Amino acid sequence: MQAVLTFALLYVAIGAALFAHPASPAVADDFHWRTQVDVFRMTLREVLSWPLALWRFSQSYLG
Question: Could you tell me the CA-to-CA distances from 47 to 1, 28, 62 in Å, in that order?
Fold first, then answer.
């Protein structure tokens, strides 16, 4: 059970590192805890489906 939990946390952490960023251009208040809820809501789908998004990105980039 511990391995499954570790895998799930790593999966979400990789997705968050790749896709959970505020919209550009960034402003000073983007990293305030109250605005992070909005960023979380906007990017949740991409964070959870990051392998698919990464695959689509690589397919469009490679041709």
Answer: 23, 23, 22
Peptide bond into 25 cis (omega under 30): yes
CA–CA dist 4, 44 (Å, integer)? 21
Question: So what's the pLDDT on residue 41?
Answer: 85
Is 15:50 a contact under the CB 8 Å cutoff?
A: yes
pLDDT of residue 3 exceeding 90: yes
CA–CA gap between residue 61 and residue 30 (Å, rounded): 29
CB 15 within 8 A of CB 48: yes
